[in-house]
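In response to the reviewer comment on reproducibility (Comment 2.3), we provide here a single inverse folding case reported in full, input and output, so that an independent group could reproduce the run without further information from us. The structure tokens appear first.
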């Protein structure tokens, strides 16, 4: 990380005069006045913003707030797919490319073999066809449809088709295993699942349909499985349950009236990890999410009609929902979708894509940037990246060295970088620079977006002044905020609205600096962030103890140069089991099978006992110290049995 030590990092980077001159928001004074109004008069502010969207029936009231329940655009009727498609076509964008998709496969010259372009007209037609197919299968407004698909255009088409008929979708990341599918299906009580025969990842086929079959073997909930043919690998189709996508749309009309959804009708569920138990179904509704996704995308990425915008996230995460599909399409621009891995066939793939399509706005994660840094700056240096006007970062804190590398080697030293802080729960970006305005500081997500009343507080709710570290809270509702955890009102209140009274608690810590900038310091709960992916320690622990030889397990995160945080598991075995290298591998694999490869512990250590307090609580702080430094030096006065740590300190598992 040369740039941290050899080149002193200037404190701030101001946007170039050229960029500011053409930006939606041009000056600090403008930002400040707009932000002030958005906080003091949220109804006036958001009412005006929402007037740029299409409503079948206008709302009666912009906002209703009875903590913890927010309602936005109350009484309004709209449709998110209509706003993404029909409304864009009405505005003259019908022949403009909406989705430009590149598959992972390449020929022997390294050129992509699958490229598909969908204009807004094309996309509307395909969405309508699939919407009609869903209806034919009996899917009705309010029914939850599960989508477990590779990164193909049909995933976006299926989401929009669901939105069109008012059937909430629940997208499950294609890297999750059968057990993870079952948990989500059952929680959502979803009877229809859309999948593919397989998906390509690093040149290999991910057996999606097989995982669905395994999942269906564990629950009898699923009545219909729609299978999109992508890889042509051999699969079994079950009579009466499974239907090919191409057969399902056969004969379906290519128009389908958009459901007039209530502003607060459920738009989607997206499962994410919490600090306890199973993943929670974060519930988003229609109008507020729609307006917030559209407006944040427009302002944060400074979208303009000719942008070639590329967000490298997977649609299985919230970033893909808001900033591959719903945000960009509502701005009538071209959103690029890439199917595969950044290193297939080699580490130049992303730069080849940027050059090929003259990408103007590029949004990725710090973990990817660090992986590229490792490969050397020569790789991006071989390509013409001069089309890039703006860079974005999301998912975890970006370390200053990665920020500087991004700035120099991709941004040509001039493109603004927007480090965007947000969560599955927030629906869209809450803390971020505005690219034409904000002087950025490498490592800081900077300032709150419009309508966002962020503060750093103590546990008792005391608001802290500039120059303090504390817990990050949001004090007023914003249109894109979650409306609940599906089927679990108590958990919703407990997780977000009870630890700190009267505000939304993010679960993150932050520093609020002398200039009023926010620096996110990471989760303060038992949630890990591995490569920008959220994992609950409790989820991984319960996967481990589901193995017949494990008695007890505790999982902690430790710093990792590449993935930000890595997983370390401490495991005690049942009486007659012997610790061995073979068992270690087996247990790591077991977690991958139970949850997915992203949850596989990087490090796994056997121990005779876990360090606990007298009240029986596992002392994670000590385990974190062990995982990070190899030994515990901190305060152990509350430990029940001092010999456990003594034994762990002397035992070297590596
Ligand atoms: C972390 C992803 C620092 C944070 C959109 C948050 C970040 C969690 C940033 C949400 C950022 C996300 N800087 N940390 N720019 N963006 N995070 O739900 O800990 O997958 O609470 O949403 O990621 O992860 P989620």
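Designed residues, in position order:
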């Amino acid at each position: 990380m040369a740039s941290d030590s050899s080149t002193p990092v200037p404190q701030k980077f101001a946007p170039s005069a050229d960029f500011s001159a053409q930006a939606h928001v041009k000056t600090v004074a403008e930002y400040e006045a707009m932000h002030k109004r958005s906080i003091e008069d949220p109804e006036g502010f958001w009412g005006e913003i929402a007037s740029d969207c299409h409503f079948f029936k206008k709302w009666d009231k912009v906002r209703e707030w009875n903590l913890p329940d927010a309602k936005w655009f109350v009484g309004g009727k709209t449709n998110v797919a209509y706003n993404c498609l029909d409304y864009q076509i009405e505005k003259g964008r019908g022949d403009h490319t909406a989705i430009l998709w590149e598959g992972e496969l390449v020929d022997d010259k390294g050129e992509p073999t699958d490229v598909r372009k969908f204009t807004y007209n094309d996309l509307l037609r395909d969405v309508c066809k699939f919407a009609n197919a869903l209806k034919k299968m009996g899917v009705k407004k309010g029914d939850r449809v599960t989508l477990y698909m590779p990164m193909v255009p049909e995933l976006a088409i299926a989401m929009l088709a669901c939105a069109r008929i008012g059937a909430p979708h629940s997208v499950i990341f294609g890297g999750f295993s059968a057990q993870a599918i079952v948990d989500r299906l059952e929680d959502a009580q979803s009877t229809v699942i859309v999948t593919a025969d397989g998906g390509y990842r690093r040149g290999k086929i991910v057996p999606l349909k097989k995982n669905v079959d395994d999942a269906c073997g564990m629950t009898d909930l699923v009545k219909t499985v729609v299978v999109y043919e992508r890889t042509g690998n051999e699969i079994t189709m079950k009579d009466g349950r499974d239907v090919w996508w191409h057969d399902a749309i056969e004969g379906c009309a290519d128009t389908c009236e958009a459901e007039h959804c209530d502003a607060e009708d459920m738009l989607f569920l997206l499962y994410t990890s919490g600090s306890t138990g199973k993943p929670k179904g974060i519930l988003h509704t229609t109008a507020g999410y729609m307006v917030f996704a559209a407006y944040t995308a427009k302002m944060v990425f400074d979208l303009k009609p000719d942008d070639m915008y590329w967000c490298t996230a997977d649609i299985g995460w919230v970033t893909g929902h808001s900033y591959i599909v719903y945000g960009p399409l509502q701005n009538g621009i071209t959103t690029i979708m890439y199917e595969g891995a950044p290193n297939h066939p080699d580490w130049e793939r992303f730069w080849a894509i940027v050059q090929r399509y003259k990408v103007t706005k590029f949004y990725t994660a710090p973990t990817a940037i660090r992986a590229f840094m490792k490969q050397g700056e020569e790789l991006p240096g071989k390509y013409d990246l001069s089309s890039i006007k703006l860079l974005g970062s999301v998912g975890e804190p970006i370390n200053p060295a990665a920020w500087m590398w991004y700035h120099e080697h991709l941004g040509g030293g001039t493109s603004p970088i927007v480090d965007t802080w947000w969560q599955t729960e927030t629906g869209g970006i809450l803390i971020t620079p505005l690219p034409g305005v904000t002087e950025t500081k490498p490592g800081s997500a900077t300032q709150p977006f419009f309508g966002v009343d962020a503060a750093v507080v103590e546990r008792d709710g005391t608001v802290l002044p500039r120059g303090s570290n504390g817990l990050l809270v949001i004090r007023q509702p914003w249109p894109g905020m979650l409306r609940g955890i599906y089927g679990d009102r108590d958990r919703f209140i407990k997780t977000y609205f009870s630890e700190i009274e009267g505000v939304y608690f993010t679960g993150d810590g932050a520093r609020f600096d002398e200039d009023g900038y926010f620096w996110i310091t990471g989760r303060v709960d038992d949630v890990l962030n591995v490569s920008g992916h959220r994992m609950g320690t409790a989820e991984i622990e319960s996967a481990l103890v589901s193995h017949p030889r494990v008695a007890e397990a505790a999982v902690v995160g430790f710093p990792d140069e590449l993935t930000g945080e890595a997983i370390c598991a401490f495991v005690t075995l049942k009486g007659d089991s012997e610790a061995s290298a073979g068992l270690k591998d087996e247990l790591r694999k077991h977690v991958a099978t139970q949850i997915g490869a992203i949850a596989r512990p990087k490090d796994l250590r056997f121990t005779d006992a876990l360090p606990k307090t007298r009240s029986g609580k596992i002392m994670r702080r000590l385990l974190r110290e062990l995982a990070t430094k190899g030994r515990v030096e901190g305060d152990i006065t509350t430990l029940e049995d001092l010999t456990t740590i003594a034994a762990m300190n002397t035992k070297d598992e590596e």
